[in-house]
């Protein structure tokens, strides 16, 4: 598990709508498609986030499974675009060449205001084949 602050970088992106600014921190050891997914999530670009997945990609979140880019797009659009939040990658752990865990702290105006999550990514062909989010 990597918690080395020297490897952290931060980006800020505007969000259309009620969110004025969103900050995302990532490490330079995270695969590019995961960094792209996290950036798309933080900037509420649901299409870009969905396009990070294989055609048959899956997301498991809060007891539900979303299959395929269109369901993932809808999950992002309807489930996560409501809140103002910042996301900070607090660590990452390569499991295998195809599997990567990213520890994420999310702070915002959602119920509870702060949550530490693990994003368990499975990659295939340079895209995300599966994402399991656990808290």
TrEMBL record:
The region called Disordered is annotated at 1-22
Q: Which InterPro entries match?
A: NTF2-like_dom_sf, SnoaL-like
Location of the SnoaL-like domain: 28-106
Transmembrane annotation, as ranges:
none
Would you indicate the residue range of the signal peptide?
none
The protein, known as: SnoaL-like domain-containing protein
Q: Which organism is it from?
A: Streptosporangium subroseum
């Amino acid at each position: 598990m990597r918690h080395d602050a020297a490897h952290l970088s931060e980006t800020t992106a505007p969000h259309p709508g009620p969110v004025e600014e969103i900050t995302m921190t990532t490490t330079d050891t995270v695969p590019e498609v995961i960094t792209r997914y996290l950036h798309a999530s933080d900037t509420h670009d649901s299409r870009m986030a969905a396009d990070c997945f294989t055609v048959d990609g899956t997301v498991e979140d809060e007891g539900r499974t979303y299959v395929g880019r269109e369901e993932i797009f809808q999950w992002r659009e309807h489930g996560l675009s409501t809140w103002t939040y910042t996301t900070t990658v607090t660590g990452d752990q390569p499991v295998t060449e195809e599997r990567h865990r990213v520890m994420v702290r999310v702070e915002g105006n959602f119920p509870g205001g702060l949550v530490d999550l693990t994003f368990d990514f499975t990659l295939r062909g340079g895209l995300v084949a599966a994402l399991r989010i656990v808290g």
